[in-house]
């Protein structure tokens, strides 16, 4: 019998129902009132439906940008939700200790049933403790194989292109290659090598999405995105039913199978008597006393956080360079010059430290992350219980306690006040034209591509190394020429959970 059925015929039936409705309306009125000073799209004071719908259609990033442009640097997107495009406000929120991650993390980013990893952890104390344990493994300090692992995978990517995918337009031979796939194989192989130890997944060697890991993870992201938009993510964490919804490490295919491979690699490493002598990420996690399921979840998290993010950045920057002849030529000239001047030795992969000294390359990487921020989720944080006052364009603004506030990546990274009227254009030269004051302001915003403060990206160093070496690494532009195969629709991209699922990025690649 339902609650309503039990009331049927009872003389208090209508008064009780009316009280519930009244309580609901009062709650709505209180919420509306608390944030009444913030402007936002029509109806956002009463419902978050518009935002949820845009999450569902994969357009939330563009919608949030429009909202901030129209309603100001802090705007309302729901009865209890705000969005900001102000870098100062976002830095403040990510630095002040009393803010915490909102429940979105727990419901949308958890992959395993009722088990957290660093990224889904909303309890700040537990998060900080875990971060201390795993940060050394992400850094090069305790991970001496980091750079060589990336080099090794990059050489495999180059080899794959040379042996299987070269076109020869002068002889009328065109062999289109789906660069979106090859880049994902590369980032998957890098991150699985770093996280699980050699040999990693070996997708480049097989030139295949082994056991459909990538396809099923894309499907999983689409489903999770829909669940998140419909506010049903809690189902995955509900007792009994949640286990049926979440992928399991015992699955024979797809994401669950990837979890299985990851957990087996951890078990094997623990059985290895010499495991404490290794100098990679997994060894560092073990050395810092991560054990059992927690160890497995953190290794799995490296695969989740470290693949789509960097793949998105690599694909987008490749596309923007290919579509901009001026940039393409300048970049290639800088790379060739570095080789001629002997700054890059032999046939091997460029070292990260040398790559960092190529100014145009650095400007191209920054510009790629700026026009196409690969992480577009609003990653919301909760305002401390007593509320907080932030400065917006020099004026104090009070944020009531318990409200969640996220950031609009597009509004921030394409802010015309910071980057100039051509902020929507891909123009690496802006990083040289700017005077000192403007450059400092641009750099401050750019740094936020990887988050800020206690939640800042742990894989930043890994991602930067991959970006530097991979796309702009001298071989890609030294040995090959690139063209977009279908300029009318260069790729198929969809925002799911704030990351981009990119497919069908067909290119022609020929030897120079
Ligand atoms: C271009 C590539 C990448 C971008 C733009 C990026 C961006 C971000 C951002 C914005 C956050 C902060 C989210 C928040 O505020 O809660 C974050 C967190 C994180 N990222 Fe990345 N990321 C990238 C690559 C990577 C890679 C390659 C790895 C792994 C090797 C990684 C591992 C992580 C982890 C573990 C966290 C959670 C940190 C914490 O909770 O303390 N990321 N990333």
Automatic annotation (TrEMBL):
Signal peptide: none annotated. One of its GO terms (molecular function) is monooxygenase activity. InterPro entries: Cyt_P450, Cyt_P450_E_grp-I, Cyt_P450_sf, Cytochrome_P450_monoxygenase. SUPFAM superfamilies: Cytochrome P450. The keyword Transferase does not apply. Its cofactor is heme. This is Cytochrome P450.
């Amino acid at each position: 019998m339902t609650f309503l059925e039990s009331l049927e015929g009872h003389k208090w039936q209508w008064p009780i129902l009316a009280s519930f409705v009244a309580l609901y309306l009062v709650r709505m009125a209180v919420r509306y009132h608390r944030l009444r000073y913030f402007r936002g799209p029509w109806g956002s004071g009463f419902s978050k439906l518009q935002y949820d719908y845009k999450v569902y259609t994969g357009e939330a990033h563009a919608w949030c940008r429009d909202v901030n442009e129209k309603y100001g640097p802090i705007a309302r997107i729901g009865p209890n939700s705000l969005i900001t495009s102000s870098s100062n406000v976002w830095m403040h929120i990510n630095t002040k200790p009393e803010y915490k991650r909102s429940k979105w993390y727990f419901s949308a980013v958890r992959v395993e049933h009722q088990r957290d990893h660093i990224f889904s952890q909303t309890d700040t104390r537990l998060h900080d403790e875990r971060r201390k344990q795993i940060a050394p493994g992400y850094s090069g300090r305790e991970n001496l194989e980091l750079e060589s692992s990336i080099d090794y995978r990059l050489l495999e990517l180059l080899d794959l292109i040379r042996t299987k995918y070269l076109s020869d337009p002068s002889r009328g031979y065109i062999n289109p290659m789906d660069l979106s796939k090859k880049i994902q194989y590369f980032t998957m192989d890098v991150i699985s090598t770093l996280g699980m130890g050699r040999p990693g997944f070996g997708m480049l060697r097989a030139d295949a999405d082994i056991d459909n890991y990538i396809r099923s993870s894309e499907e999983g992201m689409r489903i999770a995105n829909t669940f998140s938009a419909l506010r049903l993510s809690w189902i995955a964490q509900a007792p009994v039913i949640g286990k049926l919804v979440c992928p399991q490490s015992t699955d024979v295919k797809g994401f669950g199978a990837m979890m299985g491979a990851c957990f087996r690699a951890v078990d094997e490493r623990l059985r290895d008597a010499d495991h404490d002598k290794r100098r990679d990420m997994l060894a560092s996690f073990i050395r810092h006393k991560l054990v059992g399921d927690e160890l497995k979840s953190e290794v799995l998290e490296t695969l989740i956080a470290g693949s789509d993010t960097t793949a998105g950045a690599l694909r987008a920057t490749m596309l923007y360079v290919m579509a901009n002849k001026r940039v393409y030529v300048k970049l290639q000239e800088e790379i060739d010059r570095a080789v001629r001047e002997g700054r890059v030795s032999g046939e091997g992969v460029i070292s990260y430290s040398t790559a960092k000294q190529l100014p145009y390359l650095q400007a191209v990487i920054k510009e790629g992350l700026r026009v196409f921020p690969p992480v577009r989720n609003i990653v919301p944080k909760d305002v401390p219980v007593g509320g907080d006052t932030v400065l917006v364009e020099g004026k104090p603004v009070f944020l009531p306690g318990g409200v969640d506030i996220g950031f609009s990546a597009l509004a921030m990274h394409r802010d015309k006040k910071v980057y100039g009227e051509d902020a929507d254009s891909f123009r690496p030269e802006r990083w040289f034209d700017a005077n000192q004051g403007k450059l400092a302001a641009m750099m401050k915003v750019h740094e936020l591509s990887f988050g800020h403060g206690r939640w800042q990206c742990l894989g930043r160093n890994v991602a930067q190394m991959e970006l530097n070496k991979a796309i702009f690494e001298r071989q890609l532009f030294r040995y090959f020429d690139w063209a977009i195969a279908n300029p009318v629709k260069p790729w198929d991209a969809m925002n799911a959970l704030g990351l981009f699922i990119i497919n069908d990025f067909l290119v022609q690649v020929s030897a120079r």
